[in-house]
């Protein structure tokens, strides 16, 4: 089943491409050697237009950008359930603007980027999270105060500052299933790390974390992680409802598919009024 899921599209494109090439060879042979006018049937004639379009679409998906749909609440309030996003799969680097020396290469992950990646435990499952730790960094997380500290390779310690923004009145579905000791209260904060500013959601009233914490083998301290080479520490903007590096560890660079760039469409799946299902205010919104 995994083989079919991965290669069935390649097999179909290969078969269509074979027919397309054979048809062109046949037409060239008839035109130049038999000196006859070529008459194509309708199916083969349509194939001449369809195959190049398929190649262009597949090339764009493989090398330039790829669409995804958001199914979970782990990136609220940045990304909502029902958002359709576009990921960038390449980086454009300008070495010398005056000489117009532009280098296009595979996407290079950066801190604060929101990335789509393959799950470390199941390559068929895709996650989307925010990168907060780069190779060589040390991440310290306080689960009670929900504070994050980053110690860089140069031994410089940074604290991600959280400033209360506003109260989120509507609770996300599923909050009543959590282990709580008082009524749940979801608050929105603005986090700031250097020049990066973004919104996060924090749920007050959770007695215990719904996800187990990942303990690194070579680390003696709890809730402290040292990021190895070619690994990244990712976290969801919905701090208390996200399964991320805090619970299952780091992600590999080779598993990162691309950076989330834009929301091209959005549907509110919980809104029963079909006239208000489409979130027009989120269409073509840039992801920060």
Automatic annotation (TrEMBL):
It catalyses: Cleavage of hydrophobic, N-terminal signal or leader sequences from secreted and periplasmic proteins. Pfam families: Peptidase_S26. GO terms for cellular component: membrane. InterPro entries: LexA/Signal_pep-like_sf, Pept_S26A_signal_pept_1, Pept_S26A_signal_pept_1_CS, Pept_S26A_signal_pept_1_Lys-AS, Pept_S26A_signal_pept_1_Ser-AS, Peptidase_S26. Coiled coil: none annotated. The keyword Lyase does not apply. It is a multi-pass membrane protein. SUPFAM superfamilies: LexA/Signal peptidase. It comes from the Bacteria. GO terms for biological process: signal peptide processing. Residues 46-265 form the Peptidase S26 domain. The chain crosses the membrane at residues 7-26, 46-64. It is found in: Membrane. Keywords: Hydrolase, Membrane, Protease, Transmembrane, Transmembrane helix. GO terms for molecular function: serine-type endopeptidase activity; signal peptidase activity. The active site is at 74, 129. CDD domains: S26_SPase_I. NCBIfam families: sigpep_I_bact. This is Signal peptidase I.
